[in-house]
Model the fold of this input.
Amino acid sequence: MDPRVQQFMAMIKAKNPGENEFHQAVQEVSESLIPFIEENPKYKHAKILERIAEPERTIIFRVPWLDDKGEIQINRGFRIEMNCAIGPYKGGLRFHPSVNLGILKFLAFEQVFKNSLTTLPMGGGKGGSDFDPKGKSDNEVMRFCQSFMTELFRHIGPETDVPAGDIGVGGREIGYLFGQYKRLKNEFSGVLTGKGIEWGGSLIRPEATGYGATYFAQEMLATRGDSLKGKIVCISGSGNVAQYATEKVTELGGRVVTSSDSNGFIYDPKGIDAEKLAFIMELKNVHRGRIREYAEKFGVQYFENKRPWGIICDIAMPNATQNEINAEEAKTLVKNGCICVAEGANMPSTIEAVEVFLNARILYGPGKAANAGGVATSGLEMTQNSMRLPWSREEVDERLHTIMKNIHTTCVLYGKQKDGFINYVDGANIGGFVKVANAMIAQGVV
Ligand code: NDP
Done:
């Protein structure tokens, strides 16, 4: 490791003990940024890197609620307001038992760069709870969401901080959260994104992250004169991002052969077509069942407690969670001929796995660039809310597509090496940093 990165990371680790995912995210970014900052000393003098790695505000609160048996349950709620140099804090809420301060700080940190890359005026934030919606009734989820918002509402607002969904927070949860905010504030506003279409949501928002990651893959492939047509694609996850990535890849001529959840994955060599995807959507979004049931329904193989990275593919799209591809799995992907990795999830590849992809010189699109379509479309939802005017499906999709192309162009601008290889990690980190850093300098020591 570069000794300057080592020194910086020693400080980060001492200040934020035990927050491993946060250390990982900061290290990955500082490996790109420290050499850049050395060449641009104004950022060094203004201590931008040190400031950007410290949340502007961290809110931690108790979330008590009553389960269906009338028993009191207690969860922990969080909101990390990381950086508002270029706009109100913006970023999702995650409900998952693994949620802790370190995970949310990593996500909020990544969000700052991602939001800047979209070119829209959005700062970075993230929040959530260690609440597990799995196995809970709709009424329990509603009571939890109401209790969560009863504290969160005083910290957020359409001009201050605008949360959205993430793992475990979909349309149902956003509805309950919005209802409680509206009741507490007596105000109908764009305080959350990912809202239902009848009450202020944007068309294409549910599709945006998966579609956007696919558009980004398309752009990366085009740099090598290639396309998605005829490509075999391994996708992990079967939630929001995975579902719409599967839809768009199929529409553009690729064949998605895997789908997974936290219990295992299915392998369908014929491809998950529209009809089979409709089954997954019903299974996951309505019945909240397990992906194993797909194998039973369509007579394909199911691999319990395994991840799909051993399946031969041209393109991998990790769309489930952080650190879901390790170095060994990355080597297997490369050995099996994978030419492109587009990350729908946040930080799904470990630092060592990223090294494998970069050394193999395949097309590697890190999450903060490849999955920025979700938050970009949230930004478009905010615009429509402010104008009180909804755009058509085609209009939003076209804007999303253009934004993904622009993000790709920014990555090429900052990440193209002398030999022509595009290092999308450097491209996204530096491209996302510059605008925020310049705004921070302009706004003084705040
Ligand atoms: P969902 O909750 O809709 O789906 C998550 C999927 O990933 C589920 O299939 C889930 O399986 C699986 N999963 C979750 N945790 C684990 C785990 N620890 N191990 C294995 N599988 C796991 O979430 P999203 O689709 O919204 O989010 C997926 C990823 O995309 C996350 O990294 C998120 O941060 C990122 N992302 C999402 C955006 C959005 O707009 N929704 C925007 C940008 C990034 P199971 O059901 O068994 O838990």
